[in-house]
Write a structure and sequence with these properties.
Layout lengths: L44 H12 L4 E5 L4 E4 L1 H7 L11 H4 L10 H10 L3 E7 L13 E10 L5 E10 L1 H18 L4 H15 L4 E8 L2 E8 L6 H5 L5 E3 L6 H8 L3 E3 L12 H4 L3 E6 L7 E7 L7 H37 L11 E8 L10 E7 L5 E8 L4 H20 L3 H19 L6 E9 L4 E7 L5 E4 L7 E4 L17 E4 L5 E5 L11 H13 L6 H9 L10 E8 L5 E7 L5 H15 L4 H22 L3 E7 L3 E8 L19 H9 L2 E7 L2 E9 L4
Antiparallel strand pairs: 1-2, 1-5, 3-4, 4-5, 6-7, 6-11, 7-8, 9-10, 10-11, 12-21, 13-14, 14-15, 15-16, 16-19, 17-18, 17-20, 20-21, 22-23, 23-24, 24-26, 25-26
Helix pairs in contact: 5-6, 5-10, 6-10, 11-12, 15-16, 16-17
């Protein structure tokens, strides 16, 4: 039968600091003399011993003492009940858990053990220990209840041991989520982002890092607890820190030796600390990736001493193995991708002509998975007559052979045009070449679509010929009307190599108009007809802020929603109303470069008598882009400005491998993404032009009328 908690009368005079001897921690230091249980030195010796065991245990345990089930529990149990601690200490459990105690399987289990002395074990149960307003925490637990007897053998309470099973379930789910996220990665930047995000959350770490070998040395990306990382930052590349081949960083050491290293307490980053975040780390685990084709490591650190359990070590090693496999795939992809894109870009013009009244821009985005060379091409060149020749075409195929044939076609077209610039005659000669190449290869599937035009600046005319290619688009912008977009009524004809018949079309091309040539990858989408894409493209071009060719290229590539597996090529030529002024500055990769760019840009725009409001916005945006280029690419940059009566165009180009910068919401940007938010707020248009040689980020600000 249940008895009473053994107590002797409290001696005269209050006990000021009654504690359980030998027990540390928040619960062990509780002032029990103020509770209804009284000071521990007056408890029954058996009850006191049971309490000391409970408070010293790392597992969540609680004593329910007496008929009212007064609570005595340890720090692990305090973590389970959340904000009910410390008020729950020494209080009746039915009162503390009043909202859940009457529920079946909660209070009745404790009461049954107390009355009968029969132990209870439940391997998997839902216990709402942390109720929140309007809902209960549905965690899964293993729970055991045993009777507690005093020194006379009477039942005076119940010992409850609770172990949450959710951590193991969450860890398994975390591994599954990590594998799914890594399966979608292509580059090392992608792998680093996924690995760092997983490690910082799954291990609740203070610092995590991902290191990988790089051209005889090492590079490492890091995240720390509390670092603001939002949607914009997740789209930006991680900040890589470089190190030599003998770098003593724990990640590099673990990757070189192939052995995991677990430091419980110390200063593991003392020799390589980059800032105070590294200096504060005391416990660190460094686990090699164990990949065949790449060396790397994943590190997890804490600011306090940490004993690495066998479960944590197994989870870390499993995570590192998954990251290693993804890293090996990413390294292989980047190698193949770089080779394919280098071949592709080497066959496209290095620079487009720079003319007083004609502004030219182009953009090329590879289709499929970006890992194969394609056959789309563009070109713009001066003819002996002083006119400008423009061309955009598509050779069937997505392989090295298609890229090689594209190079042959582009070179032959320029040679034919320099000899006789009439568009229809150029395509007739090109048709013979394609037919010859097909006969040589023994195939009838070689065909090329191409649109070739000649712009006569003096006569303000455009003459076009097309061989199976989509009709080009002209953005017309008269001085007294709204901009409109119209397709050139050029006879399309058959592709080259399958019976091209010459035909041309001549239309007016006065100042203020912009010509847009594009490949079918711009307008074709699955489950949508071609007419839908053409209509969307015309609407987007007509609604553009200006006829600037760089802005129109970006507008065109984003005009039709949905992904495309085809290559995307765009070439735009604007016949400016008045000549523009331009300047450029080569920016060295050094810390003072952004300041030098600000001074140069301010002086140049002031000399050109640009409005102060435009100068302020342009200087701020350019400074952010220059900083990003130097920070992420790690190479020198080039700043170019072009001022026309309608707009100011600024571009910042680097020679690194940053990739495309994605638009971001301006209201959710952290320190790293805020520059892009400022550009979106202060400019009228902006975009990126990634190339194998680097990336170009540009923005456009419309200038107020003089």
């Amino acid at each position: 039968m249940p008895g009473k908690v053994g107590r002797v009368p409290t001696p005269a005079g209050p006990v000021s600091s009654a504690r359980l001897p030998g027990v540390t921690g928040l619960v062990g230091r509780h002032q029990w003399s103020a509770s209804r249980l009284g000071p521990p030195e007056f408890w029954d010796t058996a009850v006191r011993a049971a309490a000391e065991i409970v408070l010293a245990s790392p597992a969540p345990m609680a004593l329910h003492l007496g008929d009212e089930f007064f609570l005595v529990y340890n720090d692990a149990y305090a973590a389970l009940i959340g904000d009910k601690h410390p008020q729950a200490l020494g209080q009746p459990a039915p009162q503390v858990f009043a909202e859940v105690w009457p529920m079946p399987g909660i209070g009745d289990v404790v009461e049954h053990t107390y009355r009968t002395g029969q132990p209870f074990l439940e391997r998997e149960t839902t216990m709402p220990l942390r109720p929140a307003p309007g809902q209960l925490d549905q965690a899964e637990y293993v729970r055991a209840c045993s009777p507690v007897r005093d020194s006379r053998g009477r039942i005076v309470g119940v010992l409850s041991v609770i172990a949450e099973t959710n951590p193991a379930i969450r860890q398994l789910q975390g591994i599954s989520d990590l594998a799914a996220a890594l399966s979608a990665t292509l580059t090392l930047d992608d792998v680093a982002r996924v690995a760092l995000r997983y490690a910082i959350t799954s291990f609740d770490a203070d610092r995590v890092a991902f290191a990988v070998d790089d051209a005889g040395g090492w590079r490492m990306a890091r995240r720390v607890r509390g670092e603001l990382v939002d949607e914009a930052d997740e789209r930006l590349p991680p900040l890589w820190r470089r190190g030599p081949a003998d770098w003593p960083a724990p990640g590099a050491v673990s990757a070189r030796t192939g052995r995991a290293n677990y430091i419980t307490d110390g200063e593991p980053l003392r020799e390589v600390a980059a800032d105070r975040h590294d200096q504060k780390i005391r416990a660190l685990a460094a686990v090699p990736l164990r990949a065949v084709g790449v060396r790397g490591a994943l590190t997890v650190g804490y600011r306090s001493a940490h004993a690495w359990s066998a479960q944590e070590r197994a989870l870390l090693e499993a995570s590192a193995e998954l990251v290693g496999q993804a890293t090996e795939r990413a390294r292989r992809f980047e190698t193949q991708h770089g080779t394919a894109q280098l071949l592709q870009r080497s066959m496209l013009p290095e620079n487009l002509p720079s003319l007083p009244r004609l502004r030219i821009a182009a953009r090329y985005d590879p289709g499929v998975d970006g890992n194969a060379a394609g056959g789309d091409f563009y070109d713009a060149f001066l003819l002996p007559t002083g006119d400008l020749g423009v061309v955009l075409g598509d050779v069937a195929g997505h392989d090295v052979q298609a890229a090689a044939r594209m190079g042959q076609v582009r070179a032959a077209l320029r040679a034919l045009a320099l000899n006789d610039p009439r568009p229809d005659q150029v395509l007739v000669g090109l048709d013979r070449l394609v037919s010859s190449l097909g006969a040589e290869a023994g195939t009838h599937e070689l065909f090329v679509t191409v649109a070739f035009g000649v712009i006569d600046v003096t006569g303000e005319l455009l003459t076009l010929a097309s061989a199976g290619h989509p009709a080009p688009l002209i953005r017309r912008c008269s001085a007294d009307g709204e901009p409109r977009a119209e397709y050139v009524p050029v006879p399309v004809g058959a592709p080259l190599g399958v019976g091209y018949r010459p035909a041309t079309c001549t239309v007016a091309f006065p100042p203020g108009d912009t010509l847009l040539l594009f490949s079918d990858g711009v307008v074709e989408r699955r489950r949508h007809g071609l007419s839908h894409g053409l209509a969307r493209l015309a609407e987007s071009v007509a609604a553009a802020h200006s006829g600037d060719p760089r802005a129109l290229c970006a507008t065109a590539t984003a005009s039709v929603p949905g992904a495309t597996e085809d290559d995307v090529a765009v070439l735009a030529v604007e016949y400016a109303l008045r000549p523009s002024r331009s300047a450029r500055m080569e920016v060295p990769a050094e810390p003072t470069a952004p300041s030098r760019v600000r001074h140069w840009l301010t002086a140049q725009l002031t000399e050109w008598q640009v409005a102060e409001s435009v100068i302020g916005a342009a200087v701020l945006c350019t400074s952010e882009l220059t900083t990003n280029a130097l920070l992420h690419a790690g190479t020198a940059a080039r700043v170019e400005i072009d001022l026309s009566p309608e707009r100011l165009l600024v571009s910042v180009a680097d020679s690194g491998s940053r990739g495309t910068v994605t638009r971001a919401r301006t209201d959710t940007l952290s320190s790293r993404g805020r520059g892009l938010g400022l550009i979106e707020e202060l400019s009228d248009a902006w975009g990126t032009d990634p190339t194998v040689r680097g990336s170009t980020v540009w923005f456009e600000i419309l200038t107020p009328p003089q």
